[in-house]
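Predict structure. Input: Fumarylpyruvate hydrolase, 227 residues.
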Amino acid sequence: MTFVFTPSAQIAVPVVGGEAVFPVRRVYCVGQNYADHVAEMGGDGRNPPFFFSKPVDALVPGGGDVAYPPKTENYQHEIELVVAIGVGGRDIPVDKALDHVFGYAVGFDLTRRDLQALAKQKGQPWEMGKGMDQGGPIGAITPVAKCGHPAAGAIWMKVNGDFRQRGDLAQMTWKVPEVIANLSSYIVLKPGDLIFTGTPSGVSAVVRGDVLEGGIDGLGELAVRLI
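Output follows.
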């Protein structure tokens, strides 16, 4: 096959405990999946899960220096549990959903909140608020064989050493099996898909020079510096 230009390299995420890496196909995100975050965003109640996507090349495997994006005065952090799909499927039953998981990771869903809010007001897509370059730092994926299926445990974010977000995975409105089942009713999930599962309350604005550190019990930590 001859390309008109050299195609981009495959985006891949390191895997804990080995040299092999996880090739990423698509990146899905669940909106407002913790009740306290729903409240701080002005929502109410346990609404059906909804999804949006980030470009695969927005991922920053391993963290490190991350560029502060243009066109925003309100760039915010969100710490999230990321589910890595290892077995695909459509219309996956809730009671079989965990069989499709390869592993889990810590991820940051960085957000141009002002652009997202403007898009909401106008009924427009969120891509420019959520899909900017380097807007998805992600830590190494821990295989299920090493971590099981975390349904509870601390999830937290610090900015310059001070806690901004402190929650527990047990507070998720829609649990991982429900998220997988619901998403697979819309699209065919395939190996290599990642699902960012939402964030607890405490999201706040960050600026150039800030250091963001986040972690989830049993899955390690992730750190980035905004430049």
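Residues 91 and 185 are 5 Å apart (CA to CA).
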